[in-house]
Amino acid sequence: NDSETTRLVEERRIQKEAAQARIKGEEYTKCKAVEQRVQKEAEQARIAVEEEEHLQKQAEEARIAAEQRVQRIAEEERLQKEVDEARIAAEEGAKRIVEKKRLEKEAEEARIVEEERLQKEAEEARIVAEEKAKLVAEE
Length: 139
Description:
Blueprint: H1 2-138
């Protein structure tokens, strides 16, 4: 009877230890599952951070490209303005040259007309003087 009691006590102790081991095993399994879930979430968070950093880098590159484009457009507009101003100045210079040549031509024509008029007056004065000289000589 003593051996039966000892055996029953021993059997219960073993069953109790087995139950405790099973509980510890379940807890270990749960902990492992939680650990794996936490690791998975950490990996997803790391990937999300990398994606966010990549997107921020792309956004910064796009911002820089946009700024450079704005600067390029501003420079092109500035250069176009300079070209337009130079073209206008050249056109005005050409107009001044044409006007100067026109005025020089008019002045030359006026000089020739005046010279011819003076020659004609001188010729007429010479003829009048000769006629007067003849009249004086005849008297």
